């Protein structure tokens, strides 16, 4: 296995933003790596100088992304739909299932809005959205989750990692709870995919969606949705178009013959440039190895928690600082600096080219595998050098 130091150095060399910034906001949006930039530039050159004759090559590149994404999560290419964002992937299921009045969907109360509004939007069809409370650190009571489910629960939909707290959920156990109640399991994977290993069969996931612009180090507007093959016909096709049917490019023969794959949900023309750039980022991460990126990220956040606690920060994320371990850890660390305005601290740090976020009234760092000790030193300096007024 490649060492943490080797992984960090390899990825850092491909991240131009690291030359200037100590960047800790990947849970919001990542700067692009050089391979993604190269893919964008190659597409732009071809689009400007050639145009339509090269479209077929773009399609081959996009299909290569589909195959790579499937392999990355232990799925089959036929189970992958390429989508514009996580919300659109969630909506495929929320709008596609044959809901009946009295049904319900269950999620956590601290979910990102993208994993709440698509379910709440079903209220007009008589569907209830049940939101289960978690602790301040994001830790759920899984007995309460199970109690919230009943015979009319159709979907349990949770984030792999809480966006505000960084709590990494026990997806296998949650899927077991959902399936025991006869419900389907939906995973919002955006805050974990790109750092942690995911096997959809092992985890028991029925559906999953994630955009590329966070931990996958891709651009906005390019993402993936996973639909387990046996569920394809359970979802009504939303927004069908020429790309949804066979044969897709026979524009004079009109027959609603849906593809027998998740591509039926893709509708029409795709974001070729964004998907090709996403593919370049994903191949880069695959070459590094997801076990290596996970080790590098957890090593860094462990050290960050120790350094932050040493300067008086209150760590809100569920982490045990007495030892380095715990399956709830992630790449997100939520913390507070008592007596300090988090937004003022964020602005002060930004002036020093140290980038982090604020969520739920607290500071949030979300480093990737390329962040190093120098970046951590700059973070600590930015936090300790701030003076009110």
Tell me briefly what this model is.
By secondary structure, the chain is of the alpha/beta class.
Largest sheet: 7 strands, mixed
N to C succession of SSEs:
HEHHEHEHEHEHEHEEHHEEHEEEH
Count of strand segments: 13
Stretches where pLDDT falls below 50 for ≥5 residues? none
Number of domains: 2
Mean pLDDT: 95
Distance between the termini: 49 Å
Helical/strand content category: alpha/beta
If you had to describe this structure to a student in words, what would you say it looks like?
There is one protein chain. Helix content is 36%, strand content 14%. It has 389 residues and is α/β, with parallel strands linked by helices. The protein has two domains: 4-31 and 289-384, Aspartate Aminotransferase, domain 1 (Alpha-Beta Complex), CATH 3.90.1150; 37-286, Aspartate Aminotransferase, domain 2, CATH 3.40.640. The strands form three sheets. Strands 2-8-7-6-5-3-4 form a seven-stranded mixed sheet, with helices on both faces. It has a four-stranded antiparallel sheet with strand order 9-10-13-12, covered by helices on one side. A two-stranded parallel sheet has the order 1-11. The model has no long low-confidence stretch (mean pLDDT 95).
List the helices and strands and how they pair.
Blueprint: H1 4-12, E1 22-23, H2 34-49, H3 55-73, E2 80-83, H4 86-96, E3 104-108, H5 117-120, E4 128-132, H6 142-148, E5 153-159, H7 171-180, E6 184-188, H8 200-203, E7 207-211, E8 223-227, H9 272-288, H10 290-310, E9 314-315, E10 333-336, H11 342-351, E11 354-355, E12 357-359, E13 362-365, H12 373-384
Parallel strand pairs: 1-11, 3-4, 3-5, 5-6, 6-7
Antiparallel strand pairs: 2-8, 7-8, 9-10, 10-13, 12-13
Helix pairs in contact: 1-10, 2-9, 3-9
């Amino acid at each position: 296995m490649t060492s943490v130091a080797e992984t960090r150095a390899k990825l850092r060399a491909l991240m131009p933003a690291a030359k200037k910034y100590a960047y800790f906001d990947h849970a919001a949006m990542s700067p692009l790596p050089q391979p993604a930039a190269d893919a964008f530039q190659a597409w732009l050159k071809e689009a400007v100088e050639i145009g339509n004759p090269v479209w077929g090559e773009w399609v081959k590149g996009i299909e290569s992304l589909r195959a790579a994404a499937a392999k990355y999560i232990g799925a089959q290419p036929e189970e992958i739909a390429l989508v514009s964002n996580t919300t659109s992937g969630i909506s495929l299921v929320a709008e596609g299932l044959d809901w009946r009045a009295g049904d319900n969907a269950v999620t956590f109360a601290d979910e990102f809005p993208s994993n709440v509004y698509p379910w709440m939007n079903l209220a007009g069809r008589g569907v209830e959205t049940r939101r289960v409370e978690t602790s301040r650190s994001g830790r759920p009571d899984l007995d309460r989750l199970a109690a919230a489910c009943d015979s009319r629960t159709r979907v349990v939909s949770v984030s792999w990692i809480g966006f505000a707290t960084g709590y990494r959920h026990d997806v296998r156990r949650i899927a077991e709870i959902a399936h025991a109640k006869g419900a389907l399991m939906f995973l919002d994977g955006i805050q974990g995919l790109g750092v942690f290993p995911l096997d959809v069969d092992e985890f028991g996931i029925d559906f999953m969606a994630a955009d590329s612009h966070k931990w996958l180090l891709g651009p906005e507007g390019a993402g993936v949705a996973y639909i387990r093959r046996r569920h394809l016909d359970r979802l009504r096709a939303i927004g069908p178009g020429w790309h949804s049917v066979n044969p897709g490019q026979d524009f004079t023969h009109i027959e609603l013959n849906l593809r027998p794959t998740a591509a039926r949900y893709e509708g029409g023309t795709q974001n070729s440039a964004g998907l090709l750039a996403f593919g370049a980022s994903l191949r880069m991460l695959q070459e590094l190895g997801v076990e290596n990126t996970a080790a590098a990220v957890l090593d860094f956040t462990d050290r960050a928690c120790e350094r932050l606690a040493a300067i008086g920060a209150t760590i809100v994320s569920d982490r045990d600082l007495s030892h380095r371990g715990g399956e709830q850890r992630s790449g997100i660390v939520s913390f507070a600096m008592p007596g300090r305005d988090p937004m003022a601290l964020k602005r002060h740090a930004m002036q020093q080219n140290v980038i982090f976020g604020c969520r739920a009234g607290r500071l949030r760092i979300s480093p990737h595998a390329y962040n190093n000790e120098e970046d951590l030193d700059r973070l600590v300096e930015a936090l300790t050098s701030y003076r009110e007024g």
